[in-house]
Amino acid sequence: MDAKQTEFENPFGMDPDCENCDELCAARDRVVHGYGDVGAEFLVVGTAPTAAAERNGVPFTGPGGGERVQSIFGDLGFVRSEPDAAEPDVQNVFFTNLTRCRHPDRGPTDWEAETCEPFLNAEIRMINPQIIVPVGERPLRELAVEYTTRRPDSFEVDAEHATTIRGRGFELVPMREPAEMSDDEADAFRDHMRENVLSRDYRQTKGRQSR
């Protein structure tokens, strides 16, 4: 954790009362910005907060996939708290989403994702990660189109799960939606991270100095 960081939740002080999307503002309980180590080399990006994450105010927490993600990254040494923690104790990882508000009946529209994009871009710029983990089809396509040279229609998370994609300035390691992931697929992600990411000097992607 960065020596100057004082809190994990919304550490960059992003607008907690954003009103840019009328339908989301009317439906949400709260804005859920990123959570974690601002000096992290690993950035985990989902589509939008789940109901549990909205209650906690923390991405990737609670039932509905959050506990599974916390368990996976706990096994890899990034999370020091139990998977059901509402405010996880993390190191070297930052959790966030494409969009910061939850609509109870649908996913975000393209316009809503585009409107929310500056929040994510700011986090990527300030964190400067080495590895980005897109969780699900939509984050994979959005990030891969933005940061790789491949065609947009060439990305499918089922095929890319637990692989490494070379990006511009960092690498992508896609993950299937945790609520839909089998135990074997979760194990495959852990194994790929251990054998192909954590076992080598991933810092060569940007040459970041060790903290």
UniProtKB/TrEMBL annotation:
Keyword check for Hydrolase: yes
Ranges where the record places region Disordered: 177-211
All copies of domain Uracil-DNA glycosylase-like, residue ranges: 33-193
Biased composition (Basic and acidic residues): 187-204
GO biological process, alphabetically ordered: DNA repair
Keyword Endoplasmic reticulum in record: no
InterPro entries: UDG_Type-4/5, Uracil-DNA_glycosylase-like, Uracil-DNA_glycosylase-like_sf
Keywords: 4Fe-4S, DNA damage, DNA repair, Hydrolase, Iron, Iron-sulfur, Metal-binding
GO molecular function, one term: deaminated base DNA N-glycosylase activity
Domain of life: Archaea
PANTHER family in UniProt: TYPE-4 URACIL-DNA GLYCOSYLASE, TYPE-5 URACIL-DNA GLYCOSYLASE
Protein name per its UniProtKB record: Uracil-DNA glycosylase family protein
Species this chain originates from: Halorubrum ejinorense
